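Journal club prep — side note

Before the paper discussion, L.F. wants everyone to see what a predicted structure for a comparable chain looks like in token form. Sequence:
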Amino acid sequence: MKDIQPRSRALELIDFIDESPSPWHAVANAEKRLLANGYSRLLEGERWRLESGGRYYVVRGASLVAFVLGSAQLVEQGLRIVGAHTDSPGLRLKPRPVLAGDGLMRLAVEVYGGPILATFADRDLGLAGRVVLRSGSKQETRLVRFDQPLLRLPNLAIHMNREVNEKGLKFNKQTELALTLGLLKEGEDAEVRFRKLLSDAAGADAADILSFDLVAFDMQKGCLWGAEEEFIADSQLDNLASTHAALSALIDTEEPKATCMVALFDHEEVGSESATGAGGSFIVDMFSRIVFHAGLDDEDKRRAISQSFFISADMAHAYNPNFPASYEPGHKVMVNGGPVIKTNVNQRYASDAESAARFMRCCEIASVPYQQYAHRSDLGCGSTIGPTVAAQLGISSVDVGSAMWAMHSARESAGVQDHTHMIAALTAAFSS
């Protein structure tokens, strides 16, 4: 592993997140890093020619798979795969979002995944995503991003919501989440004005806009915080921290014996069942094409699977001493305490005793500490892509993550040391 100090790694992560306000931007930034480190793009619609030691990546929507072909035979070593996801919970615009009335322009949104809605109130929100344009007889997709505070979800004053501190801040998802965009002049067409904003951002004519996927994102940049700047604060740490760690580990891995892969999926926050999600065909398609170019028959393919190992990297719940009753007493994982191995007997996580032990050995090789997490039995447990990919490929799998506070908040927190620890552990896994 390259000798990069934890602070530098954390600042790299902050830059990566701040440059990735939408999952499509996250993939574009991952692609930029891969190209700068000698990776070549493959297109799914073309025939591939893979060379030993070659470094490649494939993009499907807001998902990306990158891999390097190892020096050993695939049937002997199998694959080392790290999976993460590019999407984060939040607010996304509806296809026809413009609301005009009471002298204001507002935009209707739909809740994506399970965000803590109250944390999006009274924050400077930008808008980012992709716009699909008419281009002659074809269509073209362009990324857009508004780099100024464009939107806001104004809160209701306490004078009109006297019990907010006792009962909590709640929003009706249909009637109370519209985002304020601006004042509307008398006689002004709000739809025309909105499409003009989009067309200017896309560098295109408004008449050529066919459709869009747009995300409202927190404009506040990430930072280090704490008495000794030992913590990270930013949006989308879940799960762009794992995305960045996986990419960094793959790039740091030079001339591996085993074929190594990073699979970054969209739609984890909404169940992974899509063409670009972990429940779709993407990972199976990539595995099958690599196997085909290795010249393996059906039996050798299954032999290769038996030698493979999958690590699902997603963030973990750090112990918060302000809410001690929310945690399993024997599994209080700490920020900056090292990678967390997550276990759930009902298969919400993919870890079992053998796969957990294998990851523990990776941590030992990398000289980093590790922790183990289990959820309270009387609270519903979230899930990851771990069980999904494990079932898709039938390979030994483990769920891990870095400890964090306020998961699914507009502003999350994690540990500076933990990010370096995770990169080191994943690098060791690729070399195992």
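L.F.'s comment for the group: The radius of gyration is 22 Å. Keep this in mind when we get to the figures.
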